Amino acid sequence: NETIAFQILDVIYIDQMNIRTSNHGRNFDALSFRFCADTIIECNGVQTEFTDNTMGYFPSGTDYTRISKRDNMIVIHFKTFNYHSNEIEYFKPENPQKYAELFKEIHSCWNRKDVSYKHISSAILNKIFAELYGDNKKAYNNI
Predict the structure, then answer these.
(1) What is the pLDDT of residues 34-51, one digit of tens each?
(2) Pick from 29, 130, 131, 38: which is nearest to 89 by CA?
(3) Taking a C-beta distance cutoff of 8 angstroms, is the pair 25, 67 a contact?
(4) For position 142, what pLDDT does the model report?
(5) Residues 6+ apart with CB under 8 A from 138
(6) Dihedral sign (CA 98, 35, 108, 131)
(7) How many Cα atoms within 13 Å fall on the side-chain side of residue 95?
(8) DSSP letter at 94?
(9) Contact 94, 53 (CB under 8 A)
(10) In 3-state terms, what secondary structure has residue 105?
(11) Rounded distance between C-alpha atoms, residue 105 and residue 50, angstroms
């Protein structure tokens, strides 16, 4: 969606090993970039492998289980106002370094809490969306 409207709730860094966790009925969306991962996402009976330099969109209200031997990632939690998907979306970018840098930048900005950090973080998330859209209009493969 070229004109997505959103509100960022938080930006978090996760570094976990040997974990199994389930998410049920969350009322927010998540966009993640995995720097280093050996993770399986189970959703509606389908398993998708998330490896190094992969991204995922996890829509609100979607139940899934995450099984990780290793999961090192930055996750952006946000609410969308003019878009909803019922499926988790997976993306392996051709140029992961630019996304890695954008995710690091938004994480740093959000956690510094400088003046206008919410506006600047929103601009960075818009840049991520623009890069995804511009790189490939079919950027995602549905799980």
Answers:
(1) 999 999 999 999 999 999
(2) 29
(3) no
(4) 43
(5) none
(6) positive
(7) 9
(8) S
(9) no
(10) helix
(11) 22
| DSSP label of 85 | -
Residue holding tokens 């996304």? 99
Q: Do residues 92 and 77 make contact, with C-beta atoms less than 8 angstroms apart?
A: no
- The token duo for 115 is 């003046």
Which pLDDT tens digit goes with each residue over 45-87?
999 999 999 999 999 999 999 999 999 999 999 999 887 788 8
* N-to-C CA span, the chain: 18
Print burial letters for 44-76: b (CB count within 10 Å at least 16), e (below 16): eeeebebeebbbbbbbbebebebbbebbbbbbb
Amino acid in the structure at residue 59: P
Structure tokens at 64: 């899934």
- Enter the pTM of the model: 0.90
Q: Which two tokens stand for residue 121?
A: 């973080």
Angle, helices 96-112 vs 117-135, to 10°: value is: 170
Q: Are 71 and 34 in contact (CB under 8 A)?
A: yes
Q: Is 21 helix (H, G, I), strand (E, B) or coil?
A: strand
